């Protein structure tokens, strides 16, 4: 029998300043994300230029091809476990991430983790849009070589053609989000499966150039000792989780729309252990083939596509890569800040307005310049992103161990001091203390100089410490009745 969730309309008090139509609980009518949709969501999340670059980048750490694949698979299993914890909770409560976080952090305190998540997402949204625009530029130049004349100037770091490609994709994404989560679902259902066509075609082409043979014992970096191999293996596994730490934290934004717990678990199972592993394996195969053909690993599949002689194949591949990157961008970096920004002032900022704010900020930050500045990526985005580990640990412990999976739904929207999640003036001191202790530790680990193996432990250290402190603070006196 299918588990179904039906919510009365008065679960979210209309008189509260903490609710709008987009942040309100999911209803039976809006619970349309079934197993296939969740599966496609994870496909869309995995299938991007950045995801490919991450996977093959791990190959440069000194492990062999098969060791890298096993390490990434271990990370995929950890990600699967985390997605089940957040996904089941999000589906049961039926609210987006910033509202779900009110249970742990307080009805106002939830803005702290929500806006931290939004900050990271805004920057990555701009960067991913820029990366997709590079694929679109390749397509435009192949179709109309005369456009080369538009690439010789510089306007704030982009050529005229660069601006055209960027703004075209920027507009397409804004149009998708403007129609709400149902269109996001349909876009994800298309983008996720579509990129497999491009990846398989790219693999066939490069394997053909490599005479259909690759060496899974090959490596792009210097060989490692036994101990160093183990340390790197563990590091790569946790880096896989850290790479998806933001989307993992705000997974409730999507799981809330699933009609049953079973649909979430099935979608997670097909979308993460099965699909993400397949994508990792294919990415490593392509990387090993490029290592054989070019003598180096090409971390950017767009650069690989540009080397193909056939205009037809280049056009198809460019369209698919651009489509995939748009899909992942909307799912991972647009939905979250739209909800998070809306949560800061629900009466004045809707989901769509939050999306417009996100889109505008993504231009203001000049993402192409940020992408060139690896120090910014490492120190700022890496540092803020490291806080997602503690937030995950706090949310999981609060929901499963402190409140025992019980939630007073109406009180998540209550701005009255009598509400269960009012705590102290709308802030839960215990969650904030846990974040204040675990957060700096996670950031310090993430930014450890010249120590890749230590840096890789940022997520598990932050998540574990945040969870332990939150649990310890609630041992004798639970924070809320729930």
TrEMBL record:
Its main location: membrane. InterPro entries: Pur-cyt_permease, Uracil/uridine/allantoin_perm. It is found in: Membrane. Keywords: Membrane, Transmembrane, Transmembrane helix. The keyword rRNA-binding does not apply. Coiled coil: none annotated. The chain crosses the membrane at residues 41-62, 69-89, 123-143, 155-178, 190-208, 228-249, 270-292, 312-336, 348-370, 376-402, 431-448, 454-473. GO terms for cellular component: plasma membrane. Belongs to the purine-cytosine permease (2.A.39) family. This is NCS1 family nucleobase:cation symporter-1. It comes from Nocardia neocaledoniensis.
């Amino acid at each position: 029998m299918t588990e179904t969730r039906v919510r009365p309309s008065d679960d979210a008090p209309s008189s509260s300043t903490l609710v709008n139509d987009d942040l309100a609980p999911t209803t039976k009518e809006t619970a349309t994300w079934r197993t296939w949709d969740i599966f496609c969501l994870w496909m869309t999340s995995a299938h991007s230029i950045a995801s490919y670059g991450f996977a093959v980048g791990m190959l440069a750490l000194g492990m062999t091809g098969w060791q890298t694949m096993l390490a990434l698979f271990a990370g995929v299993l950890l990600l699967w476990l985390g997605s089940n914890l957040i996904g089941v909770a999000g589906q049961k409560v039926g609210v987006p991430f910033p509202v779900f976080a009110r249970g742990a952090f307080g009805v106002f305190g939830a803005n702290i983790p929500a806006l931290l998540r939004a900050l990271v997402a805004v920057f990555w949204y701009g960067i991913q849009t820029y990366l997709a625009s590079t694929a679109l530029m390749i397509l435009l130049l192949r179709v109309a070589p005369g456009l080369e004349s538009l690439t010789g100037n510089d306007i704030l770091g982009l050529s005229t053609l660069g601006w055209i490609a960027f703004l075209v994709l920027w507009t397409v994404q804004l149009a998708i989000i403007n129609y709400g989560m149902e269109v996001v679902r349909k876009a994800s259902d298309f983008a996720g499966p579509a990129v497999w066509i491009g990846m398989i075609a790219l693999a066939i082409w490069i394997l053909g150039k490599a005479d259909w043979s690759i060496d899974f014992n090959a490596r792009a970096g210097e060989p490692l000792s036994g101990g160093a191999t183990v340390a790197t293996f563990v590091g790569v596994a946790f880096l896989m989780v850290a790479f998806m730490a933001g989307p993992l934290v705000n997974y409730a934004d999507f799981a809330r729309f699933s009609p049953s717990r079973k649909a979430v678990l099935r979608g997670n199972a097909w979308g993460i252990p099965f699909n993400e592993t397949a994508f990792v394996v294919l990415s490593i195969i392509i990387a090993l083939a490029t290592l054989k053909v070019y003598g180096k690993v090409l971390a950017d599949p767009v650069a690989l596509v540009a080397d193909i002689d056939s205009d037809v194949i280049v056009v198809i591949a460019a369209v698919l890569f651009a489509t995939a990157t748009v899909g992942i961008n909307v799912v991972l970096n647009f939905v979250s800040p739209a909800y998070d920004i809306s949560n800061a002032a629900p009466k004045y900022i809707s989901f769509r307005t939050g999306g417009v704010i996100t889109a505008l900020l993504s231009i203001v930050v000049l993402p192409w310049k940020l992408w060139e500045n690896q120090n910014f990526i490492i120190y700022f985005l890496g540092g803020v992103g490291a806080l997602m580990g503690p937030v995950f640990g706090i949310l999981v412990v609060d929901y499963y161990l402190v409140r025992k999976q019980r939630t007073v739904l109406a009180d998540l929207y209550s701005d009255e001091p009598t509400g269960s999640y009012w705590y102290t003036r709308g802030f839960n001191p215990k969650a904030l203390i846990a974040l204040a202790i675990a957060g700096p530790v996670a950031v310090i680990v993430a930014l450890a100089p010249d120590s890749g193996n230590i840096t890789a432990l940022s997520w598990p250290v932050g998540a574990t410490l945040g969870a332990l402190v939150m649990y310890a603070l609630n041992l004798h006196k639970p924070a809320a009745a729930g």
